[in-house]
């Protein structure tokens, strides 16, 4: 099938137009078929931001900057940009310019407002956050930092000068201390030299003592080992005894506690005074009875006549 | 001696004047386009549609080469690999897409137009057209120049598409930069005006190449040798003025 020239040309132009539009939209970070969501942000300093730089939310690319210009009315930097319409850019959202101007990678970061807030309308204004660009911050702080550094260096210089003076002055404490230390060291050296023989003999004595000890331990090794084993056994028995003693102690404790609490007969005996009172009254009764018996034994022994029978 | 010196100055001026007169006649003949519509379609196919394969091939190679050479030059680990995309894509859109297309078409279309018209001139076919009452400028030149103006942007788009695609493909296959990073870099540094500037360039190039070739062919003199001379001059002059226009456009519009 042969196409006419008109069809060939028309088809070519249409395909090229479609590729052009879609390509430009793609490279502009625009959604290929959706509409866009345009917003404006206001800054004091653009920090090198230009059209085409990316816009990110939490580090995700969601759109790009369209245009950066100075507002004639306020003199501030206005940044027109567009983002994915599905991003919830709510009230409270603010924008910061981040990145490193010197490397040419400047971008705009959006920090979204609360998710349940009302969405900012198309073309709405977004506040600038307090981010600032790293380089300008550094530049702003550089004079202070330099002052700090130079004062530190000045102080260091002073300290070094003082140290130098101290070291060079012949009558300074430092010098005297050093001289005294040197004297002590010399004395110690002299002592070592004069007492060399004695020190040597002490060392050799210690040597021989250690050797003797070693030898005796080597000879009587078995005996020592047996002794230690016996001692171990004894200790083990003692341990057992102690354990048993402890058990007994615990039981005794329990018993005493019961007694104190008035549990059981013994407890009652100790703690309950009613028995004493009853015994007291009984004893006094008995006393009376015995007195009566002594005075009138016949009354009690009347029935003992049977004894007489024998 | 004075005359020779004057000629050096005056001959280009005379040529420019004749060129302007031809264009003036051509613009005056645009109204007659409806009569020669069929010619326009034919020229659009010959200059535009038929040139797509060669333009795509040239652009594809230039895109691939720019990617490889940019990757070769970026040896510092400090610079992210996405920079390759940020360099290749704008250079393709701004410069290579239009200029490579222009050079290819200066050879392919410019030479063809000059040879066609030159042969028609030396074999007196143009005089025959005139004697038949046809406006030879409207019949021969207007469709060719218009076809150039309309089809060059189309070829530019094709060149950019293929060039960027091949650059990305070579970057990915050659292990220089993954396709995603290439596109991230390209998108980060994309200026919306770039493709518009490219289209403006391609329209200007299309006009320059076709009109210069038509001029050289239309005023051919002296048999077969004259046709050869016109063809050569058409191709060379097209390239020279294309480069000149490139510089002027970049200086004025960017």
Structural overview:
The complex is a heterodimer of chains A (310) and B (254). Chain A is of the alpha/beta class and 310 residues long. Among the domains of chain A are: 34-138, no CATH class; 235-276. Chain A has 9 helices and 7 strands; from the N terminus they run αβββββββαααααααα. Chain A has helices spanning 5-27, 134-168, 173-194, 196-219, 221-261, 264-271, 273-295, 297-301, 305-308, and strands at 37-43, 54-57, 60-70, 77-83, 94-100, 105-111, 125-128. In chain A, a hairpin with a 2-residue loop joins strand 2 and strand 3 (60-70). The model of chain A has no long low-confidence stretch (mean pLDDT 83). In chain B, helix 1 packs across helix 6 (136-173) and helix 4 (82-122) runs antiparallel to helix 9. Chain B is elongated. The model of chain B has no long low-confidence stretch (mean pLDDT 91). Classes of the chains: A alpha/beta (310), B mainly alpha (254).
Short note summarizing the structure:
The complex is a heterodimer of chains A (310) and B (254). Chain A has 310 residues and is an alpha/beta fold.
Write the layout of secondary structure elements.
The complex is a heterodimer of chains A (310) and B (254).
Chain A: H1 5-27, E1 37-43, E2 54-57, E3 60-70, E4 77-83, E5 94-100, E6 105-111, E7 125-128, H2 134-168, H3 173-194, H4 196-219, H5 221-261, H6 264-271, H7 273-295, H8 297-301, H9 305-308
Parallel strand pairs in A: 1-7, 2-6, 5-7
Antiparallel strand pairs in A: 1-4, 2-3, 3-4, 5-6
Helix pairs in contact in A: 5-6
Chain B: H1 2-28, H2 37-48, H3 52-73, H4 82-122, H5 125-131, H6 136-173, H7 179-188, H8 193-218, H9 223-253
Helix pairs in contact in B: 1-6, 2-6, 3-4, 3-6, 4-6, 4-7, 4-8, 4-9, 6-8, 8-9
């Amino acid at each position: 099938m042969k196409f006419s020239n008109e069809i060939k040309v028309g088809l070519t132009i249409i395909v090229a137009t479609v590729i052009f539009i879609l390509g430009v939209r793609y490279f502009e970070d625009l959604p290929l078929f959706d509409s866009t969501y345009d917003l404006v942000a206001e800054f004091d300093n653009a920090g090198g931001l230009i059209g085409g730089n990316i816009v990110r939310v939490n580090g995700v690319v969601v759109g790009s900057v369209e245009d950066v210009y100075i507002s004639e009315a306020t003199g501030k930097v206005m940044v027109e940009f567009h983002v994915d319409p599905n991003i919830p850019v709510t009230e409270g959202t603010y924008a910061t310019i981040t990145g490193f101007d010197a490397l040419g990678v400047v971008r705009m970061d959006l920090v979204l407002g609360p998710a349940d807030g009302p969405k900012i309308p198309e073309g709405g204004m977004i506040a600038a956050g307090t981010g600032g660009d790293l380089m300008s911050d550094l530049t702003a702080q550089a004079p202070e930092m330099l002052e700090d550094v130079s004062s530190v260096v000045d102080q260091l210089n002073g300290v070094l000068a003082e140290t130098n003076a101290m070291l060079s002055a012949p009558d300074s404490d430092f010098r005297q201390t050093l001289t005294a230390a040197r004297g002590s060291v010399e004395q110690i050296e002299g002592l070592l030299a004069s007492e060399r023989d004695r020190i040597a003999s002490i060392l050799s004595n210690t040597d021989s003592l250690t050797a003797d000890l070693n030898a005796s331990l080597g000879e009587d090794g078995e005996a020592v080992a047996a002794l230690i084993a016996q001692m171990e056994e004894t200790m083990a028995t003692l341990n057992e005894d102690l354990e048993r003693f402890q058990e007994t102690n615990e039981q005794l404790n329990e018993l005493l506690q019961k007694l104190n609490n008035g549990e059981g007969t013994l407890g009652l005996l100790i703690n309950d005074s009613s028995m004493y009172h009853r015994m007291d009254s009984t004893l006094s009764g008995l006393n009376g009875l015995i007195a009566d018996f002594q005075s009138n034994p016949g009354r009690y022994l009347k029935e003992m006549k049977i004894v007489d029978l024998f | 001696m004075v005359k020779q010196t004057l000629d050096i100055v005056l001959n280009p001026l005379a040529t420019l004047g004749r060129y302007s007169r031809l264009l003036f006649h051509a613009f005056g003949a645009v109204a007659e386009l409806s009569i020669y519509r069929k010619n326009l379609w034919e020229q659009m196919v010959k200059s535009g549609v038929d040139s797509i394969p060669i333009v795509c091939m040239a652009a594809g190679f230039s895109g691939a080469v720019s990617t490889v050479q940019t990757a070769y030059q970026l040896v510092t680990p400090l610079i992210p690999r996405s920079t390759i995309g940020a360099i290749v894509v704008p250079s393709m859109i701004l410069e290579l897409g239009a200029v490579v297309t222009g050079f290819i078409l200066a050879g392919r279309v410019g030479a063809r137009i000059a040879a066609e018209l030159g042969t028609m001139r030396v074999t007196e076919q143009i005089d025959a057209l005139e004697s038949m009452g046809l406006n030879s400028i409207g019949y021969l030149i207007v469709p060719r120049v218009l076809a150039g103006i309309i089809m060059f942007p189309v070829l530019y788009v094709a060149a950019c598409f293929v060039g960027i695609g091949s650059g990305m493909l070579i970057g990915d296959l050659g292990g220089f930069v993954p396709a995603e990073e290439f596109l991230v870099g390209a998108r980060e540094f994309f200026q919306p005006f770039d493709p518009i500037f490219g289209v403006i360039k391609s329209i200007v190039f299309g006009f320059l190449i076709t009109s210069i070739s038509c001029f050289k062919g239309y005023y051919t003199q002296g048999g077969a040798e004259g046709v050869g001379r016109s063809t050569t001059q058409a191709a060379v002059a097209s390239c020279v003025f294309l480069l000149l226009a490139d510089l002027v456009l970049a200086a004025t519009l960017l």
